[in-house]
Amino acid sequence: MQLCFVFTCTLSIFLPGSPFDAGGYFSTLTVDSWTSNFVDSMRGSKSNSTLSTENADVNWKTWTIDGKPMTSVLVFFAGLAMTRLGVWLTALCITHQMQESIPANERGTVFGFHSSICSFFSVAKNILVIMLPDPRTFGILIIISAICTVIGYISYLCYLFKEMLYKRDKLKGSKEKDFPVEENELMKEKDIE
Asked: So where are the chain's domains?
């Protein structure tokens, strides 16, 4: 379900009103222009970016922002809100599974490593946002986020499949071990008769 909402967010960058234009951004990008925009954004001064969010004219009757449809914004925020709900539920399930499956004496190490990985990706996200600050590149960040989410789901499905095979083989192995015992008992019964 969460994956559907992640794809909804990804779809929003292609809807009317989206500022996503990675090709236009990278075709005009130079080190000097990026550095200038980066320094200006750190100072809080006005950037020479073509897309400004100051004094945006929102018309709620026609659902437009500065005359452009806000379809992409609404779809993005709806998908984002539902995705966050899915992330919250997923985090609860992961924590519960980890608490049940990890021995008590190893939990601190595993949870510490898990927390470190989460913090690493949080910092990586912040670095990407700093490196791609223009609204025209926000779609790239959405696409990267969707790809990482899909990779996470694929990893979990591989783990789940491996566990299912392990349990099946364990169950099959225990049945094979039980079978000769039953056969030996039948032979003993025949010998007794």
From this structure: 2-28+58-182
